[in-house]
Amino acid sequence: MDCNCFKREGKNCIEIVPIFSNLTYEEMMEVARITKEKTFEKGEMIYMAGDKGDKLYVIHSGKVKITRFTDSGKEQVIRVLGPGDFMGELSIFSPLPLTDNGEALSQTVTCMIDGKKLKELMKKYPTIAFKVMEELSQRLEKAEHLIENISLHGVERRLALTLINMANEKGEVSLKMSKRDFASHLGMSQETLSRKLTVFQDMGIIKLIGHRRIILLDIEALEKIE
After folding, report:
1. 113 vs 133, which has greater pLDDT?
2. What are phi and psi of 46, to 5 degrees?
3. DSSP secondary structure string, 84-150?
4. Distance CA 38, CA 25 (A)
5. Which of 109, 57, 62, 106 lies closest to 82 in space, CA to CA?
6. Where is the HTH crp-type domain (predicted)?
């Protein structure tokens, strides 16, 4: 199906993606012409490790979980993406197969952009390439930070630092993923995560509200956890 994102109410699929933010409407239309829309249901795989990647996937609505599996078969959640985010970008620049998996966490509408034609547009509009590089640099920094956390810190310190980094200006954390996926992202079991969150709450430094909301009551105490 051709992309009809420009026909939707509100901002379209191309407009909400930062890498295209500097383009004019006419230039965005050029991107739209090499784009197809596809809807994935909750739990459906958008792509899998080993697939030949030749598309950039832009999320128009919904949420997608990006994961990898260890040699032992354990799932590691890399990130959770939402509207305006993109994935599959590395395959555009490399002939190697995809190395991660993209799974829809809810009904998700994506705009799939042809990789070869997108590279041609990058030559025409270098700002697209620079924006992609900027986003990849930010993701690399986050990945290195996650690796450092898992390698150097115990589970309590790892959880405390992550909560601080995820909190908004009001000191609230709203999880975009299930606790199972959050635990996987932190490199711990769901049982360990639940136990440590309960300990933090009993200490009076956080407050758990429902399954996905966490209020940080004492950030200074969290910073001191080793």
Report:
1. 113
2. -80, -40
3. T-EE-THHHH-SSPP-SEEEESS-EEEEEEEHHHHHHHHHH-HHHHHHHHHHHHHHHHHHHHHHHHH
4. 22
5. 62
6. 153-220
Task: Return the higher-pLDDT residue of 16 and 30.
Answer: 30
Q: How many other C-beta atoms lie within 10 A of the C-beta of residue 94?
A: 11
- Give tens-digit pLDDT for 59-99: 989 999 999 887 777 888 888 999 888 888 777 777 788 88
How far is residue 35's CA from residue 7's CA, in Å, rounded to a whole number? 13
Q: What is the pLDDT of residue 7?
A: 47
Q: What is the pLDDT of residue 211?
A: 85
Question: 126-159 burial, b for 16+ CB within 10 Å, e for fewer?
Answer: eebbebbeebeeeeeeeeeebeebeeebebebbb
Q: CA-to-CA distance for 59 and 222, rounded, in angstroms?
A: 34
Residue 172 contacts residue 219 (beta carbons within 8 Å): no
183-204 burial: b if 16+ Cβ within 10 Å, else e: bbbbbbeeeebeebbeebeeee
Q: What is the mean pLDDT of the chain?
A: 85
pTM (2 decimals)?
Answer: 0.70
Confidence (pLDDT) at 4: 53
CA distance 148 to 152: 6
